[in-house]
Write a structure and sequence with these properties.
This protein is α/β, with parallel strands linked by helices. The chain folds into 2 domains: 158 residues, Rossmann fold, CATH 3.40.50.1400; 136 residues, Rossmann fold, CATH 3.40.50. It is built from 11 helices and 8 strands. It catalyses: heme b + 2 H(+) = protoporphyrin IX + Fe(2+); Fe-coproporphyrin III + 2 H(+) = coproporphyrin III + Fe(2+).
């Protein structure tokens, strides 16, 4: 398929260390300018060393690129895929130079973030602008693909993931099964300037509706920042303790709806901390997988690309709200952080 309005796709992500020697330099990139004590950074580093000093996020992005490349080829869409990260190799600036050398002039951008917020949307757009200015490559146009929290294929993907998790639990106790949808907490000040909470609530509701459950809640994880700064609550571990104290759950299903892949924060905060807590409290727990390379999810990305290529006029969305905008308004997700000390990176 030729004469497309775009000549490349950039997959833009957070990045993560590939080996133990990468951990400290990676964290220095993440925390640069944030006035974080070195002792605190070393404490965060232990999370990565706990899993061999390697974050799963890079391998998961490689797998997603491989699956998406095959999906595009199957539908005769000739669009090379480039990959760049905010905080680790391949760094966005290096990838942008590679794209320039290859003659790319107009690129679509798929960010590995589902929901609207400063850190999950606007900051990535700022990363692109900063890299372009640094390299003098303003001649390349980068257009971000819309958010997809209410795309029916994303909802179907996550419903499948939840069903698989439920199948791991025994039949006994199913009548008091509680589903906890989890997402990365953000500062209240950031949340007040975007649709993050509203979109998360809608995604969770649509997934719960798709699998026919009504015992569910939206909770948060991976909080960082100083204790006196309010962030979105409740925390997932606090929610689990509350369920145990009130004896209102005989089973728990954790659904990391806020994350595209099973990266470090998912496996550390949920598979380690939350799972250990649930075991201590005597409540069986299963954790649903993230969207990852689920075929329906990969097909959804291809459909979003087709929208921007003009190959379809349909913009799919379900629920209370319509499809998200293609072009972000000037003040969309605006946030002026004071650069507080953060306790951990945000993959």
């Amino acid at each position: 398929m030729t004469d497309l309005p775009y000549d490349a796709l950039l997959l833009l992500s957070f990045g993560g260390p590939e080996k133990p020697d990468d951990v400290i330099p990676f964290l220095e990139n993440v925390l640069r300018g944030r006035n974080v004590p070195r002792e605190r950074m070393l404490e965060v580093a232990e999370h990565y060393y706990h899993f061999g000093g390697k974050s799963p996020i890079n391998d998961q992005n490689r797998a997603l690129i491989e699956a998406l490349t095959a999906e595009l080829k199957q539908h005769e869409i000739d669009l090379p895929i480039y990959w760049g990260n905010r905080n680790w190799h391949p760094l966005l600036t290096d990838t942008m130079q590679q794209m320039h050398a290859a003659g790319v002039r107009r690129a679509l951008v798929f960010v590995t973030s589902i929901f609207s917020s400063y850190s999950g949307c606007r900051q990535y757009r700022e990363d692109i602008q900063k890299a372009q200015a640094e390299l003098g490559l303003e001649s390349i146009t980068f257009d971000k693909i819309r958010t997809f929290y209410n795309h029916p294929a994303f909802i179907e993907t996550m419903a499948d993931r939840v069903r698989d998790a439920i199948d791991e639990l025994p039949a006994e106790g199913a009548e008091k099964r509680k589903v906890l949808f989890t997402a990365h907490s953000i500062p209240n000040a950031m949340a007040s300037n975007c649709d993050y909470e509203k979109q998360l609530e809608e995604s969770s509701r649509l997934i719960a509706e798709a699998i026919g459950i009504d015992q569910w809640s939206l909770v948060y994880q991976s909080r960082s920042g100083p204790p006196n700064q309010p962030w979105l609550e409740p925390d997932v571990c606090d929610a689990i303790r509350q369920l145990a104290d009130s004896k209102s759950a005989d089973q728990i299903v954790l659904v990391p709806v806020g994350f595209v892949s099973d990266h470090m924060e998912v496996i550390y905060d949920l598979d380690d901390e939350a799972a250990n807590l649930s075991q201590q409290l005597g409540i069986p727990l299963a954790r649903a997988k993230t969207a990852g390379t689920h075929p329906t999810f990969v097909a959804m990305i291809r459909q979003l690309i087709e929208e921007r290529l003009g190959l379809t006029t349909e913009k799919r969305a379900i629920g209370k709200f319509g499809p998200s905008h293609d072009v972000c308004p000037a003040n969309c997700c605006r946030f002026e952080p004071r650069r507080p000390a953060t306790s951990r990176p945000t993959e």
